[in-house]
Amino acid sequence: MIIPALPPEPARLIAGWAVRWHSPAEITCPTRGKFIETIEPQCFSAAVASGVVDLIFSHDRRRGVIATQRNGSLKLSQDSAGLWFEAEVGDSAIGDEALEVVRGAGYRAASVGMTEALSRWSYDRDGRHHRAIMSAGLREISICSRGAHPSARIAAGRLPIERLKAEGRLDRLARAEAEVASQRAWGSADIRGLPDPYRCERPAL
After folding, report:
1. Which pTM value belongs to this model?
2. Domain positions in the chain
């Protein structure tokens, strides 16, 4: 029996889920207080097609760009599980630092810099405010130690990256079932299609 050889592993690849659809996160906003936030499927379609998204550290452009769509080193795709990115990290000081902190497990989270979010607001059965982001622009994806959405995780190396892919697709089924049950149980008053007037800071990184 001939076992096919695996393709060579990219030596400088960082990848992961920048966003997982329907994954709840508790956000604190100065104007809105605490609320539950989820991001809806295909939210970033226009941004993915724009070709101008960058990968940086902790929303801090002063540290430089790790990878970017502009030169093809950052690739983005959306599927039924979430927004997936793959970054071919260049041979540079910031690239070396990015690989070191992700491989060392210091930075295993991702966060997104959104713009022009279009949201739907509702209340759950416990009276908590819920914000579902329907569509949004995307300036950048950040590698960070802790993001607003705990399910947004990243890795370096073939096996850790493949595990992340598998987790996302398996988790998708469980979340779909929970969403159906939740919609049946909750009474909501939705405000649809209104521009979101609230610009909330993400938790400190």
Report:
1. 0.78
2. 13-184
